[in-house]
Design a protein that fits this description.
With 163 residues, the protein is mostly beta strands. The chain has a single domain, classed as Sandwich (Jelly Rolls). 5% of the residues lie in helices and 40% in strands. It is globular and about 35 Å long. Strands 1-7-12-9-10 form a five-stranded mixed beta sheet, with no helix packed on it. A four-stranded antiparallel beta sheet has the order 2-13-8-11, with no helix packed on it. Strands 3-6 form a two-stranded antiparallel ribbon.
Length: 163
């Protein structure tokens, strides 16, 4: 319960990680493509159909010493990003969210290549990451599952509105 109260108040976490073999690699092409969005985009939200899940345990990828809410990052993703967002312009906030019947997770690498964002439960079992004053450039997004399930139909949501 305490975790969820904090989760709704603070949905982003900038984290750093080391690269390891068979772990998230932002240098690879995304599975489900990419989108270019400019600040003030319409229609808002933009929604893309994707699949959540993966076989790579984040606990084995240099994320295990990084914590959110006092707990290690958990979940399973693929090596390649699932989606890339090319962001241009200035905005007060940008939210990347996932809607799925599975217990999804989001892992996002910022354009600087060093900043990582993670969330697993923002609304029920659906994650969301709100980035304040997002930097311009490419955001690589991994759409995973908390329990290691794969092939979970999902919708990836981009919005500048409060989510």
């Amino acid at each position: 319960m305490f975790k969820k109260l904090i989760a709704t108040a603070a949905t982003i976490f900038a984290i750093g990680a080391t690269s390891a073999a068979a772990c998230p690699n932002f240098n690879l092409a995304p599975h489900f493509g990419s989108i270019q969005l400019d600040a003030g985009f319409l229609p808002d939200p933009q929604i893309r159909n994707v699949t959540a899940g993966g076989t790579i345990n984040l606990n084995r990828c240099g994320f295990s010493n990084l914590y959110t809410y006092g707990e290690p990052l958990n979940g399973f993703v693929t090596t390649r990003p699932d989606f890339s967002l090319n962001w241009r312009g200035q905005s007060g906030q940008l939210t990347i969210a996932l809607s799925s019947n599975a217990d999804g997770i989001l892992l996002v690498n910022a354009p600087d290549g060093r900043t990582w964002y993670y969330d697993d439960d923002y609304r029920g079992l659906n994650p969301a990451i709100t980035i304040q004053n997002p930097q311009q450039g490419r955001y690589d997004i991994w759409i995973g599952s908390y329990d290691g399930s794969r092939r979970n139909p999902a919708q990836l949501i981009f919005t500048e509105y409060n989510y």
